[in-house]
Specification:
The complex is a heterodimer of chains A (about 350) and B (about 350).
Chain A (H helix, E strand, L loop, with lengths): L1 H15 L8 E6 L9 H16 L3 E6 L6 H12 L4 E4 L5 H10 L4 E5 L8 E6 L1 H15 L4 E6 L4 H17 L4 E6 L6 H13 L4 E4 L5 H9 L3 E4 L12 E7 L2 H13 L6 E4 L6 E4 L7 H16 L9 E2 L5 E3 L7 H5 L15
Parallel strand pairs in A: 1-2, 1-3, 3-4, 4-5, 5-11, 6-7, 6-8, 8-9, 9-10
Antiparallel strand pairs in A: 10-12, 13-14
Helix pairs in contact in A: 2-9, 3-4, 5-6, 5-10, 7-8
Chain B lengths: L1 E5 L5 H25 L4 H9 L1 H4 L4 H27 L7 H18 L8 H27 L3 H21 L35 H19 L1 H11 L1 H6 L4 H25 L13 H11 L4 H25 L3 H18 L1 H4 E5 L6
Antiparallel strand pairs in B: 1-2
The chains are: A alpha/beta (about 350), B mainly alpha (about 350).
InterPro entries (chain A): ABC-Purine-Binding, Peripla_BP_I, PnrA-like
Protein name (chain A): ABC transporter substrate-binding protein
GO cellular component, one term (chain A): plasma membrane
């Protein structure tokens, strides 16, 4: 593939003469998993490819995959900056401190860190309101479960993940008061064997819905193997497992954001920003709801999607109590972003402890 | 007809030659691999082996990084090699590395935000103790109950990983970290920061300790009775027992020293390059060090060179990914080839190739 692009650009340079110099911006991407993970990293890489397609020869993209979140991240980001990248997207929470550290050394390079909270003059942060998708997922899960047991494969006990659990639980509970959540902490974003083990354990314990906040398709495969279990695609559509077990999905669509930010670098209008977009602006997509879902449930789910997209409905609307019984949101009150971003508690009804 | 014939004793020539040959074979077959991936093989090999040292754009940064990457590998591999010489297989250095980091970091964070020049030395001590204690588990189980140290030490890696996850989202979590997992960052706390000794060289205390460990291991193995006993235990266990070597003591010593060195490596890493305890803090140094130990022929100087070479393939591999767009897995494959060819070529140390008719004995 690389050779093909080389040939293509060489041919273009021949025909257009000076056109070779048009490649004036390099955008770099640091990935936590392999680009073929079928989930989180895959979608970021789709965003990168969309940037290439949109800008053509004007923008060159580079990436490094499977960069560990420890000491190696800082070196990987530094090398990318040294190689001449103008804007670098670091696409996992664990890159936060390394991104800030490297950004200090390269004031002329723009950095974009996904899902963190530390900003600087040349560091923007961006994330998606996945919890909006979780609400729809919870609705379908709560309506469809027969054992009333929903298994949840969680990655790390960080606010983003806890928010997803709460959102899914609230909406499952709303349609099915008997529903119970079993949560397994995998402590990984991508580890097919661990994820499959977690899914199997949950299914053995009677769960007939598996929700996942990890990136591989292993839980889908485990559910397919067990039969009579439904799942949802995570980060990516995972349509290979439709119509069953995968009945719908939450899709991250980073392409519009990446194109917008690279455009800002080209125009010289880039500024440090804090972006948190959901279904409305299109950063979070809901994958096709398959025929395995009853017609009325599907219609309700789509109606909820519309209501969230238009801003008419917020998934965290009171009355909601915290797990310890104290009041979090009064009747009709809507959660503020600050609380959501730092969420470190379960809502009432989830019978579990957040590991700490 | 080709067949292998056992040499009366291992060939000295091949002992030295096989790592070099293995590297050359890896270059050739790695080149083929990169060619299949659509990259120019010569450019790829140059990017991996030459650019980290001499590329004008990167070398200023990557040369010091070689030491940063090689330091923990050498430190751990030296400890492992002493045990391997005695036939004691500590496969769980990764776990000892994690426990060293946790114990050392916890000891430091207990006195946060004090400032005293004693804090870092104390952390180093606790790091070594943590690794040592974790290695004593397989040690005592082996000497008391005859369990297999390979299995026990390996299993304890997974236990340590879970303790790491608990530590970073629980008892060592940064109280000012908004609920996110991960400890305080040692880079923001001067008294506990394992900073570069001379700015821009990559040389931190851990690298210095790695060099000292090389010298120490060399002296131990060539000049000290304990080193002699270790080698004797590995090469002729029965003879060792007859000459009065206490096997239990050798087991505990070997596991203890390798655990302590791995624990120190973990502490130097957490207080320096990594900066904080996080769930993904360990990045496989404990396992890679096994490769380094064998690549270096279990000899201290060999390990020093092997550690640097391994670091070179890591950093060069990253550059190749970045500059040539080859996938990350191909770099791992490349490193795997290195070990594969080393083990393959190693056959010639103990066997020679014979062509022609079978001799009549």
């Amino acid at each position: 593939m690389h050779r093909r692009t080389l040939l293509a650009s060489a041919a273009l340079a021949l025909t257009l003469g000076q056109a070779a110099a048009a490649q004036d911006v390099t955008a770099g991407f640091i990935y936590v998993g392999p680009v073929g993970d079928g989930g989180w990293t895959y979608e970021h890489d789709q965003g990168r490819l969309a940037v290439e397609e949109h800008f053509g020869d004007q923008v060159k993209t580079i990436y490094q995959e499977s960069v560990p979140e420890g000491a190696d991240a800082e070196r990987a980001i530094t090398q990318m900056a040294l190689s001449g990248a103008d804007i670098i997207f670091t696409t996992s929470f664990g890159y936060m401190d390394p991104t800030i550290a490297v950004a200090e050394k390269f004031p002329d390079v723009k950095f974009e860190h996904a899902t963190g909270y530390k900003r600087a003059d040349n560091v923007s942060i961006y994330s998606a309101r996945f919890y909006e998708g979780r609400a729809i997922q919870g609705h379908i899960a709560g309506s469809m479960t027969e054992t009333n047991k929903i298994g949840y494969i969680a990655s790390f006990p960080i606010p983003e993940v806890i928010r997803g659990i709460n959102s899914a639980y609230l909406h499952a509970k709303k349609v099915n008061p008997d529903v119970e959540f079993s949560i397994v902490w995998a402590y990984t974003w991508f580890d097919p064997s661990k994820e499959a083990d977690a899914a199997r354990a949950l299914i053995e314990n009677g769960a007939d819905v598996i929700l996942q906040h990890t990136d591989s398709t292993a839980p889908q495969a485990a559910a397919q193997e067990a039969g009579d279990v439904i799942t949802f695609g995570q980060a990516s559509d995972m349509y290979d497992y439709a119509p069953l077990p995968r009945v719908s999905s939450i899709i991250d669509d980073w392409a519009p954001y990446y194109i917008e930010r690279v455009q800002a670098v080209i125009d010289g209008t880039w500024e440090s920003t804090d972006t948190w977009d959901g279904i409305g602006p299109g950063m979070v997509g809901i994958g096709e709801i398959t025929d395995a879902v009853p017609e009325d449930v599907k219609a309700e789910a789509l109606a909820m999607k519309e209501a969230i997209a238009s801003g008419e409905y917020h998934p965290f609307t009171g009355p909601i109590n915290k797990a310890d019984g104290s009041v979090w949101l009064e009747e009709g009150e809507v959660a503020d972003d600050g609380t959501l971003l730092g969420m470190d508690f379960y809502v009432e009804g989830i019978d579990a402890e957040i590991p700490n | 007809m080709i067949r292998l014939e056992k040499r009366p004793q291992p060939s000295r020539l091949w002992t030295g030659l096989s790592p070099v040959l293995a590297v050359l074979l890896t270059m050739v077959f790695g080149g083929v691999l990169f060619a299949f991936l659509g990259a120019n093989p010569f450019e790829a090999i140059r990017t991996i082996f030459w650019d980290p040292l001499f590329n004008t754009q990167f070398a200023g940064f990557t040369r010091p990084q070689l030491l940063v990457k090689a330091g923990p590998l050498i430190l751990i591999a030296i400890g492992l090699s002493i045990g391997f010489r005695a036939g004691i297989w500590n496969i769980g250095a990764e776990g000892q590395y994690i426990m060293g980091a946790i114990c050392g970091a916890a000891a430091g964070l207990a006195v946060y935000p004090a400032s005293s020049f004693l804090i870092l030395p104390m952390m180093i001590l606790f790091g070594a103790l943590g690794g040592w204690a974790w290695a004593m588990i397989p040690g005592i189980l082996k000497t008391r109950f005859g369990t297999n140290e390979i299995l026990v030490s390996l299993m304890l890696v997974y236990v340590a990983e879970n303790i790491l996850a608990t530590a970073s989202s629980g008892f060592l979590r940064n109280p000012e970290g908004r609920g996110f997992p991960g400890s305080r960052n040692f880079k923001e706390w001067d008294a506990a920061h394992n900073a570069e000794l001379i700015s821009g060289t990559g040389m931190h205390w851990g690298v210095l300790f790695a060099f000292l460990a090389v010298i120490g291991a060399y002296v131990l193995l060539t000049r000290h009775i304990l080193g002699f006993n270790i080698r004797l235990t590995g090469e002729a266990p029965r003879a060792a027992r007859f000459s009065g070597v206490n096997p239990a003591r050798i087991v505990l010593f070997c596991l203890g020293i390798s655990g302590a060195l791995a624990g120190m490596a973990g502490l130097f890493e957490v207080a320096g390059p990594a900066g904080q305890i996080s769930i993904d803090f360990n990045s496989g140094y404990g396992f890679t060090a096994i490769i380094v130990a064998f690549l270096g022929r279990l000899h201290p100087v060999g390990i020093l060179l092997a550690g640097l070479l391994m670091a070179l393939t890591y950093i060069g591999g990253e550059l190749a990914q970045l500059m040539l767009g080859v996938p990350g897995a191909s770099i791992q494959l490349f490193q795997g080839m290195l070990l594969f060819f080393l083990l393959g070529v190693d056959v010639f140390t103990n066997y020679r190739l014979r062509l022609g008719q079978r001799e009549t004995a």
